[in-house]
Amino acid sequence: EGAAAGVGGGLVQAGGSLRLSCAASASGYTFSRYSLAWFRQAPGKEREFVTAIGRSSSSTYYADSVKGRFTISRGNARNTMYLQMNSLKPEDTAVYYCNAGSSWGQGTLVTVSS
After folding, report:
1. N or C, which end of the chain has less CB nearby within 10 Å?
2. How many of the other CB atoms lie within 10 Å of CB of 113?
3. Are strands 10-13 and 108-113 parallel, antiparallel or unpaired?
């Protein structure tokens, strides 16, 4: 689709931090029109919801498994969204996908070593 591209994944030790970014990559696709979300898919598992943020940033939602460790934010002026991940655990290992409306990012791999 090309409307969102996520970057920032990599290998990190347990307890470490990573920051994922996602930007609209198609001209005319405006993040401010949508609620934004991050999902993840671990090897051999189904894609699962991680976190979401409303259009005004006043509402955020987190899966219980990441609450208190992950923070979602958006930069409407820059047409971007972010996921700050702290206190990472091996079970956070997955491909992370950003979502904006009907558009999905291509996914970025996060690997947390124990």
Report:
1. C
2. 11
3. parallel
According to DSSP, the β-strands at 60-62 and 70-75 are unpaired
Which of 26-30, 39-43, 56-60, 99-103 has the weakest average pLDDT? 26-30
- Torsion from C-alpha of 53, 94, 63, 61, nearest 10 degrees: 0
Q: What pLDDT, on a 0 to 100 scale, did the predictor assign at position 3?
A: 63
pLDDT tens track for 42-84: 999 999 999 999 988 889 999 999 999 999 999 877 789 999 9
Tokens of 77: 């002026």
Closest-CA residue to 83 (of 28, 31, 1, 17): 17
